[in-house]
């Protein structure tokens, strides 16, 4: 019988046996769309994404989920659905939603198991008034996808 003398540096030169490889996907910056007067129709912005780390929820888990649902204008069932996705591990940050502009950090920062971070978002300053110029601006649900 024969064997292969294998080392990780066959794939990544200089890589040692105990090194780890981490893949990170970076999204390209989206182009912005302006009207002839320079007013934004579709622009890039920043928002705060709130998520839950299941193993850190503690004894007040039900109350915390309820507060998060209220902050994000969603039902507790929607929060629960996101927390029961197959990919989730106890120590995972589970993104629940984007906070409305003007929400104070004090409204959620002290909740056990809740965390947040800044994210890039697409903003439509004129909302539906310019939707015909910028294309589809919402998420597609399963029913719309079928049609």
Automatic annotation (TrEMBL):
One of its GO terms (biological process) is cell wall organization. Transmembrane segments: none annotated. Residues 27-146 form the Penicillin-binding protein dimerisation domain. Its EC number is 3.4.16.4. GO terms for cellular component: plasma membrane. It is an enzyme of class 3 (hydrolase). GO terms for molecular function: penicillin binding; peptidoglycan L,D-transpeptidase activity; serine-type D-Ala-D-Ala carboxypeptidase activity. It catalyses: Preferential cleavage: (Ac)2-L-Lys-D-Ala-|-D-Ala. Also transpeptidation of peptidyl-alanyl moieties that are N-acyl substituents of D-alanine. Pathway: Cell wall biogenesis; peptidoglycan biosynthesis. It holds the Pfam family PBP_dimer. This is serine-type D-Ala-D-Ala carboxypeptidase. It comes from Bacillus cereus.
